Amino acid sequence: MENEDDDPIIQEVDVFLAKSLAEKLYLFQYPIRPSLMTYDGVPHLSARIKPKQQKVEIEMAINTVSPNYCRSKGEQIALNVDGTSTDETSTYSTKMMDKQTFSSIQAASNTSRYAAAVYRKGEIHVTPLQGILQMRPSFTYLDKADTKYREREAANEGGDSSQDEVEDEVKQVTVRFSRPESEQAKQRRAQSYEFLQKKQAEETWVYLHYSNVKDSRSEHERQYLLCQDQRVGMTDSTELMKSPREYLTMLMPPAVEEEKQKVVAPSNVLSMAQLRTLQLADQIKIILKNVKVIPFANLMGLMAAGTEYINVLRCVQQVAMLVQGNWVVKSDVIYPKESSSPHSGVSAEVLCRGRDFVMWRFSLDRWVVRKEIATVTKLCQEDVKEFLDHIAIPRINQGWEFMLPYDEDFVKKHPDVVQRQNMLWQGIQSKLQKVFNIPKEDWMPKSADTSTAAPMVVPGVQLVNIAKAKVKDNLHQLEWDLKKKKEQSKKASSTLTVLADVHIKEEPVSDDEAMDTCEGLNNGLFNGIHTDDSSCEPMNGLIPRDGTLVAKELKEFVAATFNKQYVLTMRELKRLFNLHLASLPPGHILFSGISDKMLQDTVLSTGCKQIKVPFPPQSTATPEEQKVFAMWTCGDSHDKLRQVLFDLFLSGHRMRRNMIQTRLNQEFGDSVSKQQVDKVLKDCCVCYGGMWYLKGTAHS
After folding, report:
1. Of 360, 462, 576, 657, which has the most beta carbons under 10 Å away?
2. Distance between CA atoms of 116 and 17, rounded to whole angstroms?
3. Do the Cβ atoms of 293 and 326 come closer than 8 Å?
4. Does pTM top 0.70 for this prediction?
5. Sheet holding 367-368, edge to edge
């Protein structure tokens, strides 16, 4: 109470809220002009506004007779802007800069806290502000002068060249497909400067009439800053006429319990309960469309209890294809007819064809290379990567490996389904051959029986397990056959010894041991055991009877490989040979057993030479891995360049480009172009850290 006596109320003032100009009242600020130097006495020539943007432009006259005005500069500016023309489009009709434009920018985006107040007869009348604008000089006339200058320069340059030269000039045109715009791209575009400028330009100007502060119209408008009817219940300011309790309720509204809203899932996501309300075919289609690739056992695990096994098997074949024992969703499910690529804009038909090619390649081989896929399909790298992401995993320096292991159980249980899928793949591959012009010898398995499907390629350890299982099933039959032919051929007994050793050994093996074991078994256990004398023998150091045919096949493989790679280490050559074996049909003659010595002799006999690269002493490469072979003569124009390059690497395992360029210039003079050097380096070398290495030797 004592404090209240010290601070008594001196006067009470009524506050009224005026709304007549609530949506039309703006506060103009002139930040570059002193407050004592107002523009009230300056003639205002025109004014206009864009209400939505709160953009205002005002033209004011310049006193050209003032002693502070430089007449020569004003005339020069007018000449630069308008030139010598005197039409209506001229900015300065008096041939002198006699006016300037002020343009506004928003000083505050939210003006709900600001108002204009008028004190009159013991009352305060408050009107909310619609906007606060800062008026600054606009220099758009300089842009117009710059445009005039460029037009004059272009006209002068155009006059120097003859019309014939202009007509004969040919320009290269690049055609690109427009990509469908994603939601994120739309948001980024909507926030871009160019888009905002375009939106601002779309709003039309509203022209205004300027009234001086002392005009009668201005005085009339100022009356609207006062609350118009204060006696009739003060209808314009009912918000301020509340009881204390109502006012407190407005300041602190009571807490309202919000209803717990259900979490809304994305439109493309269904719960298992929702999924099981659909038809079985729709359930399987949605699952395959989301997971892309799935084993059949996992698919059955997602079905409701009591779902018929045969019905699931029948439905999955309608929306998926069998690849390495697993089910991969069909391309037309991923890319419907009306869709297109979000990366390149190509049609769904082209995308389906490219994805079918990728799936077909995986039905023949466990590994593919993205660059080769892009070369054949002629699609952009983003589309090819999307295909591979669906069903494969990238491996460093190896390519893309199929995502799931080979499903042996499904293939054993359903040979009829496997046979039906193989027939479908044969139809697809014949169509792909016609579209992409794929040579049969490059991509198709060589098999005398056209009804035999291409073999599924599986990892080494799993291949050994398959071999062991088949050994257990066929061992007794093989023993009987081998005993029967023991007197006719001693090789059969050695075959029995190898098979028996594999049958006994049950300990885990590494990937390298698995590959060696698979080669030692001649891949016969996976591709089918042959008991006939004319069939391929197990890889136990023996050479097949028809050595000429084996040497011919091996030589064709080596020649084709080096014509593409030019330089290979022995390790990389063996890896490519094993991949080649995996793509061959069962019983092929190359399964008869190819030793490293035979492979190396074949390389040297096809025109290749061994390059003895001097590896550093601290190199961890084995002597076998340090063997580097190169195609010495290919028959093209770059043979001599490659030979000089190979000779250069005899002095060191890495070189700088300038050293290579200098050596080539010494040998061939200035006739060697940059394109030729780039071609040779790309064919034979790789670059790491600014140094060039022969292929396969960079990390040895």
Report:
1. 360
2. 10
3. yes
4. no
5. 367-368, 399-402, 392-395
